[in-house]
Design brief:
The chain is an alpha+beta fold and 308 residues long. The chain contains five helices and twelve strands. Helices cover 31% and strands 14% of the residues. It starts with a strand and ends in a 19-residue tail after the last strand.
């Protein structure tokens, strides 16, 4: 049914049948939408569980893909079959609309809005269910990727009293194994090849204890001294030893440490000495640790304190 406004522009009245939804069976369409949203929430939850358990990429991709697909399908079905059908026509006056036309527009818009949301509370709840789970699960990569809290793990290594100094091939180090001026990388026997426990053992001199600092009179027996290989600047392995100058060099940023003064840094960006491992020689002549390092190894961290 058509008429003409005051300016001659045609006005098309919007009859009630135009606001009917497209679906022949709206209840069935509603059930499909609800099922899509609920299943998408379950798929998102499965993705969260798979991510938390470090599952294979197939599980991660499959669950998140299914969730997004179902969530999108719910919106598509909702928009296609449960929203009012068009086309909708409005008067298009050339100049300012009259009050009657303005009131007609407001009434028309309100009518469409009511039709769009009528009996859709269940759909909104189902959509909120899927969207809420997705919102929570979206935080999982951020939280889980940070890894577990370090706790006190930054303060200790696997070195313990009695731990035998062991090479990468699992052999214990005897006092006769390393020539004067020689070095070897050693680990606790239960933590071989560990980046945290790696230690450089240096045969500085032939016999006699080496006192690097007061209070360390027994730490370096029979001319052997051991330091953590983890540089206090950026964590690189300190593995170069110059016997003539008795200095250790970090190849990453050229920090130099004096072996005979407790691995004190004398050049480069390293802010602290390397941690020294206290040693002793057992009855069979094998080198063992007296204890763990007496301070945290490697670079500084937020709870390390004022160690210098």
């Amino acid at each position: 049914m058509s008429d003409h406004g005051t300016n001659g522009a045609p006005i098309v009245s919007v009859d009630a049948p135009q606001f009917e939804v497209a679906a022949r069976n709206p209840k069935r369409a509603e059930k499909v939408v609800v099922a899509c949203f609920v299943l998408s929430g379950i798929a998102f939850a499965c993705f969260g569980g798979a991510f938390w358990q470090n599952a294979d990429n197939q599980w991660l991709g499959g669950t998140i893909g299914a969730g997004l697909l179902l969530f999108g399908a719910g919106f598509v079905v909702w928009g296609k079959y449960l929203m009012p059908r068009g086309p909708f026509e409005e008067p298009r006056p050339m100049m300012e609309a009259t009050k009657a036309e303005h009131d007609a527009f407001i009434g028309d818009f309100a009518t469409r809005g009511k039709v769009a949301i009528r009996r859709r509370v269940l759909l909104a709840k189902a959509m909120g269910f899927g969207g809420a789970i997705f919102g929570v699960v979206a935080l999982f990569p951020l939280v889980r990727s940070l890894g577990p809290l370090p706790g006190k793990s930054l303060y200790t290594t696997k070195w313990r009293r009695g731990a035998r100094l062991t090479t990468t091939d699992g052999r214990g180090v005897h006092v006769d194994d390393v020539a004067v001026g020689g070095v070897v990388t050693v680990f606790p026997e239960d933590d071989v090849n560990s980046a945290i426990s790696q230690t450089i053992l240096i045969h500085v001199q032939d016999g006699g204890n080496i006192v690097t600092k007061p209070g360390r009179e027994t730490w370096a027996p029979d001319g052997y001294v051991a330091y953590s290989k983890v540089c206090t600047h950026a964590g690189c392995p300190v593995g170069l030893y110059e016997h003539t100058t008795q200095q250790l060099l970090c190849p990453c940023h050229q920090s130099i440490f004096e072996v005979l003064t407790g691995a004190t840094p004398i050049f480069g960006p390293a802010p602290r000495p390397l941690a020294q491992l206290p040693l002793y020689v057992d009855s069979s002549g094998y080198l063992r640790a007296q204890s763990d390092y007496d301070e945290p190894i490697g670079p500084g961290f937020w709870e390390r304190g004022g160690t210098t």
